[in-house]
Amino acid sequence: MSSEENYKKNGSLSFLLHDVSRRVARAFDKQMEPLGLTRSQWCVIVYVARDPGIAQTGLADKLEIGRMAVTGLVDRMESKGLVERRDDPKDRRIKRIFLSDSAQEIIPKMQLSGELVDSGVFRGLTLEDRDHLVKCLLSIRDHTDDLESEVELVRVG
Length: 157
Known about the structure:
Blueprint: H1 3-10, H2 13-32, H3 39-50, E1 54-55, H4 56-63, H5 67-79, E2 83-87, E3 95-99, H6 101-121, H7 127-156
Antiparallel strand pairs: 1-3, 2-3
């Protein structure tokens, strides 16, 4: 029995996506080791680079972790000189997160590591296959967002 036949008989597409995602993240983790970054830390760098000055609570939401957990994570990154907290000018209860210069210098290395992982992970796919995969994954992501609200409706209703 081929692996595709075995998957069709025993697997679910959602589980396969989870399994692939976990393996890709693990490969990226291995690439980040020389930079001294954990998965959580490289995720913080990505989110803060995309949204400089993100509120610490907003970062917790993006990372899907609790506020106390993000506080500890940001504390550790701040002590490593990767991020800095700044008070919000309008609300002193809000802490805004910014990347340090040293974190900014790491980003090109992270991007190169991502490209190395991508070249290994996707080596069996043509450029057309990759483009199609991106379209499919974006569609899945968008529908997943919709599904979360639909699931809430089912639970309540």
